[in-house]
Amino acid sequence: MGKPENNAKGVKGFFTHLITLLWWHLPIKREGRKRIKDFVFTRFRPLFCHTKVYRNWKEADMLSGITYNENDVDYPAHWPSVGHGKIRQPSPVAVDTSPIDDLAIILHVYHVEIMHEILRYLVKPSNQKVKLFVTCPHEKAEEINGVLSNSHIYHELLAFENRGRDVLPFLKACAVAFEQGYGLILKLHTKKSDHRMAGSIWRKEIFNALLPAKARTDIIEIFNGNPSVGILGPTGHIVPMSLYYGANAKGIGYLCRRLGVDTRELHDMAFVAGSMFYARKEAILPLLELDMPDAVFEPEAGQLDGTMAHAYERGFAISSYAAGLWIVDNRFDPRNPQPAITTNHRFTW
Fold it and tell me: Same domain, yes or no, for 159 and 274?
C-alpha cells in the first residue's frame, strides 16, 4: 500500500488534470476564458493566490500593463542576468536581397515514425535546391541515419543532448546552415502532442501548408518579392501573443529584455503556434546572437508548458519584430500584409 501522502498527491493530480480537461473543453472561446480568469482572480484573489494558474495569470498581466522590470521579477538562477552579456537594441536590419534559390530545412526528430511523413514530401521532384538538416538526441542518431541514408535526400545529421525540445537543436543547426550560406530556413519537427487528441490533425494541417513542392515554390517567391517578410507560418496557426502566454510570461519578458523590446509592444504581436515556419536568416539572428548557454533550457521531463523552449517559440516572433520584419501566413498578399490571426486556436491549450 502506498504512503498516505503519495496517495493524496495522486488524488490531487487526478483532480487537477480532470479540472484542466473540463476547462479546456468548455465551449468558451479564448477571449472569454481570459475575461473569466481576469474576473475570478481579481475578485477572489485570496482563494487562488497560491496556485500556479494564478501566478501564470499574474505574470501575463504584468506583461500586458507595464515594461517588464528585471528588478521586479524573480528570474531562475540559471538564466544569465539581463544586465550582463549581449543585449540587442531593436532596429530594422539590412536584408540580403539576393535571389533565394535554395532552402535549408531544419527538422528535429524525436518521433522517428513521423519523420517518414515528412520525407515523403521531400522525395518528390521539385525545382528547389534543398538541404535537410536533421537534429536529434544522441540515442536516436543511428536509427535516423539509417533512414536518411536510404532516402537519397541531401542531408546532414546533427546529434545533441535531449534538451530544449526542438528549439535548442534548431538554434544550433541554424548556426551551421547560416555558415554554409543558407538564407532561408524551414523549421519543422516531428510534432506528436500526445496531450492533445487532435495532435495528428494539427501536424498534417501544418505539413500540408508548408511542405508540398508547389507550396515551397510559392513561399520562396514571397520571400524573394518581399524583403520585409521575416517569418511565414501556416494560415490558421498564427495566434495573438497576448492570449497565448500560457505559463511562459516570465520567459517571454526575459527574452524581450535581452532583445531590447518593450513588453507593452507584445500586445500587437502574434506568433506561430506549433513552431513550424519559414524564416529569413535576418529574422532569427537577433535571437541567435544572444548566444544563450545550453543550461538556460531545462532538461527534458515531459513538460507541457512553461519551459524556456516554450518561451522561445514566442521568442522567434519577437526576434523578427526586433529586426523590423513582418510575420505573415502562406496566403500572404503584399497589398494587405497582415496575417490572418486566429484568436481561438483549436489545437492549443
Answer: yes
Residue 270 shares a structural domain with residue 171: yes
Q: How many structural domains comprise the chain?
A: 2
CA nearest 108: which of 163, 180, 178? 163
Question: Which grid cell sits at 116?
Answer: 517518414
d(CA 2, CA 111) in angstroms, rounded, equals 34
Whether 248 maps to a domain, the answer reads yes
Indicate if 125 and 264 belong to the same structural domain: yes
116 falls in which pLDDT band (50, 70, 90)? very high
Per-residue cell: 119: 520525407
Residue 22 lies in a domain: yes
Cell reading at 21: 480537461
pLDDT band at 53; cut points 50, 70, 90: confident
**Do 196 and 318 reside in the same domain of the chain?**
yes
Q: Are residues 121 and 261 in the same domain?
A: yes
Grouping H, G, I as helix, E, B as strand and the rest as coil, residue 347 is: coil
Are 25 and 156 in a shared domain?
Answer: no
Higher pLDDT residue, 200 or 321? 321
The answer to whether 294 and 64 are in contact (CB under 8 A) is no
Range of the structural domain that residue 291 is part of: 102-329
The pLDDT mean for the chain works out to 84
- Decide if pLDDT at 70 tops 70: no
**What pTM does this model have?**
0.85
C-alpha cell recorded at residue 332: 500572404
Residues 128 and 270 in one domain: yes
Residue 21, H or E segment: helix 4-25
Model confidence at 84: pLDDT above 50: no
Cell (9 digits) for 154? 541531401
Q: How confident is the model at residue 1 (pLDDT cuts 50, 70, 90)?
A: very low
Whether residue 251 has pLDDT greater than 80: yes
Q: What is the dihedral of CA 238, 240, 246, 251, to 10 degrees?
A: 90
**DSSP E strand boundaries for 154-215:** 155-160, 184-189
CATH code of 231's domain: 3.90.550.10
